[in-house]
């Protein structure tokens, strides 16, 4: 089969000049691995006279590989049979799919060897994948968790908070952290910290998947609780000491006040004694027989 002509769109897509490919047979510029495709096309043309959406590789003029979906139909033109074919460029789609496969392989390689529980939840809310570490963390095998609701990863009492975090992802946040109780297969629960991020459709921006990792933080929570208990005990001791200090200060103030009252009463007593001696023309003295020291009152001295 000889190529008679190609349009401008084909030339622009592949980089091949029309004159370059005109007269060639069997698409000599095709990419590798397409021999089976040409046999498939030949069989379809023999049986139906047409073919639809057969994917082939095309080597562009610059040597790069291009992927196209080819469709064609045999028509009668000027007394001979001519194949009219069209190509839809799907290169970007195929490269994106290859990148996604590579990303998924890397994700699985990381997940299979991680100690944290790593998983994926679809837009339907169902678990698409969990790593083998779910056995050690939650007691479930992988196949027991796959297909279940993502809400089963969170204890009923924490599901409202978890749903609020998921809503934050849908609203545009790129990373959300949360702490929840996670139920185990044996009926117990474990404290976990979850880190979730959305995977969005490049065209629409819609969330097509949520990837998450879950880590056991039970030991950290125990440390936090122990630290909280010590802090509360310290606060109690400080409160007791503050109360004791307040009482001591109050007692000291009372002693000082009593001492001042005694001093005042003594001064007033001395003043009354002095006045009585002055009015009664009497005096008084003290004699320390050990030292022979004598103290006279002013009134006695005057007398």
Write the layout of secondary structure elements.
Elements: H1 8-14, H2 18-21, H3 35-47, E1 50-59, E2 65-77, E3 80-89, H4 91-112, E4 117-121, E5 127-130, H5 134-138, H6 142-145, H7 159-170, E6 176-183, E7 189-200, E8 207-216, H8 218-280, E9 285-288, E10 293-296, H9 298-302
Antiparallel strand pairs: 1-2, 2-3, 4-5, 4-8, 6-7, 7-8, 9-10
Report what the structure shows:
It is a single chain. The chain is of the alpha+beta class. Among the domains are: 8-89, PAS domain (Beta-Lactamase, 2-Layer Sandwich), CATH 3.30.450.20; 99-216, Beta-Lactamase. It is 45% helix and 26% strand. The protein contains 9 helices and 10 strands. The chain has helices at 8-14, 18-21, 35-47, 91-112, 134-138, 142-145, 159-170, 218-280, 298-302, and strands at residues 50-59, 65-77, 80-89, 117-121, 127-130, 176-183, 189-200, 207-216, 285-288, 293-296. It has a 5-stranded antiparallel sheet, with helices on both faces. A hairpin with a 6-residue loop joins strand 7 (189-200) and strand 8 (207-216). The model has no long low-confidence stretch (mean pLDDT 81).
> Could you spell the SSE succession in H and E letters?
HHHEEEHEEHHHEEEHEEH
* Average of the residue pLDDT scores: 81
In angstroms, what separates the terminal alpha carbons?
A: 159 Å
CATH class of the domain at 99-216: Alpha Beta
Number of helices: 9
Tell me the fraction of residues in β-strands, as a range.
25-35%
